[in-house]
Each structure stands twice: as C-alpha cells, then as structure tokens.
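Each record in this resource describes a single protein on a pair of labelled lines. With that in mind, the following record should read easily:

===
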Amino acid sequence: MSRCKNCGAEIPEGQKYCGACGFPVEDPEYMRKLRPCKTCGKMVARSARVCPNCGKKLKHPLLRLFIFLVILVLFALGLYKFEKEKSCCSFLKRLMFWK
C-alpha cells in the first residue's frame, strides 16, 4: 500500500485516486499516457487534439519532428548534389529548373 501525497491516507494498490481526498495517484503507467498542455500546464491525454481545460489546440510533437527530419534530409541531398557539381551556377540552374 502507498500513501496519498496530498492527505497521507493509505491507498490500496491499483487505485488511480485517493479514496479520502480524490487526489490522483502517480501511477507510472498512467502518467506515460499524459503530457502537459503548453498553455495552462494541466496534464492531458497524449492523443488529445484540444486541451479540455483551456480549449487550446494541441500540436503533436512527432509531427514537428517528422517535418524537421524531412527538411534536413532534403537539405543534405541538396548539399550532396552541390558537392558533385563542378560549378555553382550549373547546380543553381538545375535547382531552379532552368536549362
């Protein structure tokens, strides 16, 4: 059994809230499914698109990472092609679809 961090009451295993005061128990499995809202700071589900507390639209962090990686790969490919070309002008002409 664990104790409530808010009121000190004993909490049986498996409960998510204290029976005496209703304070949430810090269950590691449950906490992994939450993330903080950047506007109000309240914990919301990772799958939530809108914060239920403040109504702010939540952005998915993996989407930002994916977009960043795509841009990084395109930039690296551009540098690789630039290094293969002998002159900068011919590379820029091909990049801008000039002939």
About this structure: Helices lie at 28-31, 61-84, 88-95. The first strand starts at residue 2 and ends at 3.
